[in-house]
Amino acid sequence: MLFKSFLEKIKTTLSRLSPARRIFLSFALVIFLGSLLLSLPFVQATTSQATYFDHLFTTVSMVCVTGLFTQPVASTYNMWGQLICMLLIQIGGLGLMTFIGIFYIQGKQKLSLRGRETIQESFGYGETQSLKDFIRSIFLTTFLVEGIGAFLLSFRFIPEFGWGRGMLTSIFLAISAFCNAGFDNFGSTSLLAFQTDPLINLVIAGLIITGGLGFMVWFDLATQFGKKKKRRLRFHTKLVLFLTAGILLFGTVSTLFIEWNNPGTIENLSAPEKLLVSFFQTVSMRTAGFASIDYTQARPVTLFIYILQMFLGGAPGGTAGGTQDYDLLCLVGLRS
Question: What's the pTM value of the predicted model, to 2 decimals?
Answer without folding.
Answer: 0.85
